[in-house]
Design brief:
mainly beta
Length: about 90
């Protein structure tokens, strides 16, 4: 499931107020669930298995019992790097 706007090869646009919910697994893999906005109460725009290794855009991060939530504060791009690594960069 990936309904994010394409930004090039292995790159997707994230809305300014996107929320990336990261569920950490004991094996080291993560489940990234991306919502357009936390307040919208809509289904997620994307779910990806991999590791979010960096966030290089304005954001807030909160730890949870199962992982963490990244709340984006500016337009950004999710980039795939390698087989299972992802980076968020300023758009």
């Amino acid at each position: 499931m990936n309904k994010l706007a394409d930004a090039g090869e292995d790159r997707w646009h994230l809305p300014q107020h996107a929320h990336v919910v990261v569920y950490e697994a004991e094996e080291g893999d993560e489940l990234l669930t991306i919502y357009d906005c936390g307040a919208a109460q809509k289904p997620p725009s994307a779910q990806l298995i991999g590791n979010l290794v960096r966030v290089r855009a304005d954001h807030e991060m909160d730890r949870t019992v199962t992982g963490y939530v990244v709340r984006m504060r500016e337009r950004s791009v999710l980039e795939k790097q390698g087989d299972d690594h992802f980076v968020v960069r300023r758009a």
